[in-house]
Amino acid sequence: MDPTQREDLMVPEGRNRRRHPRARGDWPVMVELPDGPHQARVRDISKGGVSFFLDRPIAEMSVLSVEFDLPCPAGVRRIRGTGAVVRCEKISKALDHYEIALFITEMADPDRATIESFVTEIQLT
């Protein structure tokens, strides 16, 4: 990742319920749905959750598992977690794609620490 572009990766906090700083993302994420795994695209990430774009709606409070490779200075780290959908919004009337926000309830401590380091690094550069 080019350090000159990292300022663009920070997501403004604005008026929201977020408790953790977040950074923009743009990499694949596998989402486990009742009918099997589906590939989505990460929009942003924090140690408390992830939002992603998907080609179908998911009901709020649905429990999902996600898995993705987080780009890190030492390479790539596989991140896994489970959480509840807290938001599902259609991107536009013309597209049948949705932005899904997942509050991560179950994740290994080292994975949360890796995400937190990633977000902090983005903020400092």
Q: How would you describe this structure in keywords?
A:
single chain, Thrombin, subunit H, six-stranded antiparallel beta barrel, 1 helix, mainly beta, 125 residues, globular, disordered N terminus
Could you characterize what this model shows?
The protein is mainly β. The protein has one helix at 109-124, and strands at 23-24, 28-33, 36-46, 49-54, 63-72, 75-90, 98-107. Helices cover 13% and strands 49% of the residues. It is globular.
In short:
The chain has one helix spanning 109-124, and strands at 23-24, 28-33, 36-46, 49-54, 63-72, 75-90, 98-107.
What is the CA-CA span between the terminal residues? Answer: 11 Å
CATH homologous superfamily placement: predicted glycosyltransferase like domains
Instruction: Name the overall outline.
Output: globular
Q: What's the CATH topology name?
A: Thrombin, subunit H
Helices and strands in order:
Layout: E1 23-24, E2 28-33, E3 36-46, E4 49-54, E5 63-72, E6 75-90, E7 98-107, H1 109-124
Antiparallel strand pairs: 1-3, 2-3, 2-5, 3-4, 4-7, 5-6, 6-7
